[in-house]
Amino acid sequence: MEVAPRMSFLMTTGDIPFRLRVFSGIVAAGFLLLLLALFRTQVINAEMYGTREQAQSLRRIRLPSARGDILDRHGVLLANNRPSYDVVIYLDQLRISKRQDIYRVASSNLAVLAEAMKLPVTLAERDIRTHYHKRRPLPLTVWRDLPPPTQALFAERAAQLPAIELIATPIRQYPNGALAAHLLGFAGQAEQPDDEEGDEFYYYQADTAGKQGIEKTCDEALRGAPGGRTIRVNPSGRSVGEVGYKPAERGDRVTLTIDANIQRIVENALDHAPLPGGAELRAAAVVLDPRTGEVLAMASRPTFDPNLFTPGAPAAEVGLVLRNPASPLLNRATGARYAPGSTFKPVTLLAALDSGAVRAGDTSVCKGSLQIGNRSFGCWNRHGHGRVDAATAIRWSCDVWFYEKGMATKVDAIARTAKDFGLGQPSGYDGGGELAGLVPTPAWKQAHYGERWWDADTAQLSIGQSFLLTTPLQMACLCAALANGGKVWKPFVIRRIATAEGVIVSETKPELRRRISSPHFEFARQTMLATVQATDGTGQRAAVPGVSVAGKTGTAEADIRVDGAVRRIKRVWFIGFAPYEAPRVAVAVLLEQGDSGGHTAAPVVGQIFAGIFGKPTARAERGGVHAD
Amino acid sequence: MPTSRPAPFFQRMDWLLFAVMLALAVTSVCFIYSASYRGPGQPMPAFYRQQMIWFGAGLAVYVAVMAVDYRRICQWATVWYVLAVLSLVLVLIIGVQVYGARRWLGWGRLGIQPAELAKLAVIVTLAYYLFHRTPEQRQDWKTVLAPMIVTGVPLLLILVEPDLGSALTLVPILFAMLFMAGARVKHLLLAVLLGLCLTPVAWWQMKTYQRQRLAVFLNPNRDPLGAGWNLNQSLIAVGSGGVTGKGFLQGTQNSLGYLPRTVAPNDFLFSVIAEEKGFVGAACVVGLYAVLLGRGLRIAANARDRLGMLLATGIVAMLFFHVFVNIGMTIGLMPVTGVPLPLLSYGGSFALVSMTALGLLQNIWIHRRNY
Q1: What's phi and psi for A71, nearest 5 deg?
Q2: Which positions in chain A touch B235 (Cβ < 8 Å)?
Q3: Which end of chain A has the least Cβ crowding within 10 Å, N or C?
């Protein structure tokens, strides 16, 4: 009997058949191979598989932020958010078997609710299917903005329908309706950006984006920062829990220079403009503080209710606004150009006096028209003003005096002064949507018409016609500069941007664009005061008892097409400031169609000043007035 | 030499082998629990409790098999073999059809897979047959041919079910035992060559899903949402487990159902362990198997006679094949086949077979050479 073999832990050493050693070697090699392969998978490639695991089971959902508030200068809310109570359905929470169809299950669930709430289901089959395949873990909105009684009806049924919920989402609200609609603009749904943010979020939920006005120009600040939710989904795309959450940051609060009270006065005044029969109200008004360039009010007519553009608004009503030929969305205060007519005359006056070619005492004899070359140019007063000097030329708005003195001054000086006042260029207004207007020059005419500049053109320019185009905002700036003795401000409406917690992000300081120095400002201002205050002034209807209003009327003829036929209508203007001694308010009002600046626009300005300074309007007491 | 019994068998048994078996069984119950866990508040499937019952039954068989001398058991080889073949025929006739295959005999939860039992019957039969060949006969090519037929009959019957994985298990058993019996390597290589020649026939005979599985094995990125789903999700589960794993019950691949619930507790239980316990846990499991099979080989080396050595070799070959193919499958080293992991995967038949086989190993050890 041989000696018993020595034992080791696993094997007996010695006396092992060769073949058993081979077999054991194969088994050992197999285990080693498994260990190496496991090491490769779990240690070397662990990160790669970890990434794949997250990619397939984690989804990031973008959470849109609530837009910041917009306030007037005294803190009155102009735009904020209110909760919209929406009924949503979580398609991934519906228990459906493989053989059931998601659309049928969803719509049968919704039908129960629809009957209880007496609301029709407006979701199309395609909406449900697309949502189910593309955005499964997200709620699908079924009904928006339920009124409280319907919410109560929902609550009665909610317990039986676990996949359906009532959720509150912030919705943009303009508490004052159409007040300052053009200035504020409105917010709609943002488009998904093409940049990496689109990839970063698997499920993109859009912010609201400002589409016009302050909502647009301050969009970045108002929007805030989106938050995110990371959820885990199972292979069928159903959410099984939240992994991470970052709340969205509310947008910044924008405080405007607007005074809601003045805004209301201005809009009310426009709405009550004494229009000639048959004329539609298409108008704009801008009120500035001539000491700073702050926009105190800005209005445009016709108007719209920005609340209409919230998500889920009836498409028919939105379409009505969008297709309206009167373009109610257009902000005529900044986005439309008109010939300023006689409101330009103070510019011509200053250019004439400053150039030295004309002195204030120089007179012309107005016979109702003036022959220039082989054409006759009329004064608005066909009977003629007789002998006219600089003061009466403004007060009576005599065209003939300006034809003659304008031609004597030469186009270059007039155009230069006009540009000094900020015409023909954007004012730099921070509310957006601004047009540049046009100050014509001989070079410009040559370039655009291939024609030389005639004396007649200078004459026309002198009374604010020919090719001259301005926006009401520019005219308000011009008026403010006349009021304050030559300070051309950059008008601004955004006073301050602060976070929702009140930390100031930015604050606008008044910015002087140019200082026009002229020894004749006081004279020009006096003529404008007389225009309103003198019994023979054309701007009497802007007068307000107890307030020293100064101003200038304007009427410009324009040809418009109505149903294919060309009609000649009168654009009417009034620019004015008050109080004369220390102006605090400068106003420009334009109406696209009126009788004359003195008849149609001046009363509007009068009403504005009366409102601002708390006085009754003088309009009713005045008798017949000279027009223009 | 007369057999003397100086001590009761439980004093002579390999306690380490027994301890490893128990450790694997406990691991199995824990991770079958985890694999069927669906989150707090969700109903808990009873898989893990059923598996405990199977292990209980397995332990009873284990003790019974230890108690009877293996030589006596092998004397009945023909009976075991005929019973196995009969049950394989029976399952084709009255078997319960699951996913298009007839693999189950019995009712409801008490199903038995004859294919698993056949593995043991083939091992016993081959050991008994080869044990009775003279050294000259063992060199003869006829001694290679006869075991091939003995193995081939149940193999073909299992293929018809079809159950490719179980059928293939018989092949390494056959070769390992022939090799250990002393068959000429030349004959074995010839047989392998012959088998390779039959590969095209096998491909032609394969079901579509089997071909897809092979194609996916060769290229895991092919059809990741269809045929490649299980392999890819298993790889992600194992790989994302990293070094230390996500923690017990924290395996998202499994609990969210990326690793399908139908396969997680059985064929892919190792993926669940690897995901939740990481490389450390996975290596521990591989280590447990290494100890288990190392002890098996030690028993083969110390067997009293060639019968015991052959029997032990067949059992080690079977268990090794299962371990290697199953774990290899979860990490893309082997194609996806339904080969369960011994003592870990959920399932009664193979748990019983595994414990019976380990009982036989203990039996051989108890009756080893120096006793």
Answers
A1: -120, 155
A2: 41, 49
A3: N
